[in-house]
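ok so for the tutorial part 2 we go from a plain amino acid sequence to predicted structure tokens. step 1 is just haveing the sequence, like this:
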Amino acid sequence: MTDIAVASQPWYRTLGRTQWKTLIAANLGWVFDGYETYALIISVGVALRQLLAPASYAQIPVYAGTVIALTLLGWAIGGMIGGVVADYIGRKRAMILAILAYSILTGLSAFAWDWLSFAVLRFLVGLAIGSEWVTGTSIVSELWPDRNRGKGVGLMQCGFGIGFFLASLAWLFISPIGPDAWRVMFLLGVAPALLTLWIRRAIPESDKWERVNERRAAATERKRRGATLSGQEESLARFTVLDLFAEPEIRARVILTFLMSLASTFAFWGISAWMPPYTASVAAKAGLPAQQWVSYVAMASNGAAIIGYAGFGFLADVFGRKPITMAYFALAFLSVPVFFIWTQDLTLLLLAGAFSGIFVSGQFTWMSAWLPELFPTRVRATATAFVFNAPRLISWTGPLISGWLIANFGGFSQAAVVIATIYILGLVAAPFLPETRAKPLPE
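step 2 — the prediction. this is what the tokens look like for a chain of 443 residues:
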């Protein structure tokens, strides 16, 4: 089919069955990641009321912040390991291993007997969740065409919002069960293990990775024999993490995108972790059922986030990665005072939650859309995983810091606004990166 004929067709008709199946597999993996992540956020307070002694209830924000923070820490460590693994054993195999691991470990979380066992299990869940995203992002980016890559990864990324929404909906019906409701939420998290059976049969390995893997194996063998390697062979034979910092251009891109990712993740976890308890406090003041309104606002926020995730990809394919990323950062920053300071009416809080969901959550698509286009195939998964996950070695402290602020100074609003100022870092770093819209992936 000629380029003119392709351009005259609707974008979705230019894609083959394999590309759609790959998107579905990556999207579903991220749906379940989202479910299990938000299941923790929305139910951690109820879980801790069962796992802690009554004398410790006043410090639940601190314990909740600790559990969420440890999940993020596990996510950071597991995600970086997963990126390296995906560059060496392949995108498809790494995805299957990650989904199996987080499904089993989430189910085990339901059997925690005290807050410490709960925290340890959630840390282990984080290890597995972190590595799933990078495999999905890499394989979709490598199998989808240049002109529509943003749409593909945007549709993949919206799976996280769908997972958040499903967890919110599930909690609406499961929370009335009582003190053990949180255990049921995590038991449902075993379901994704079945997805791996379909992935094994339905999608191929990335052909770009297979070609590079063959060249990597040949270069490694030549190095083992003591042969003189070319510059490209040296890069292929080098450990991928070291390769990120060996070349000035790649190193600069890693640093800039790390700063942007830090802004996205630190703000998100410092803000979204406290939207449910803030909503509950507003509902309680109004004399309305707190957990019911927590579910309503969470569904509004997470439903809108789906639009934000997918919309980013479509907008980025039209206007470019850079301007859309910067716009999302700016509007995410604005959404924080809108939700936590300027809105006290519960009906308006639904709208404010939706606005926050579109930009605070939706902005994460910049990493799916832009990162794979900035790095060559030999280190794509390692670089993408490092940038996406390494900031969590810092941002995991966001829930801890905001939990401490809430417990000691009394107020969700102040904590959230202070945390959100880090968005400025992303706005400063983004202009220094190249625009990559519709360009071939670097080999």
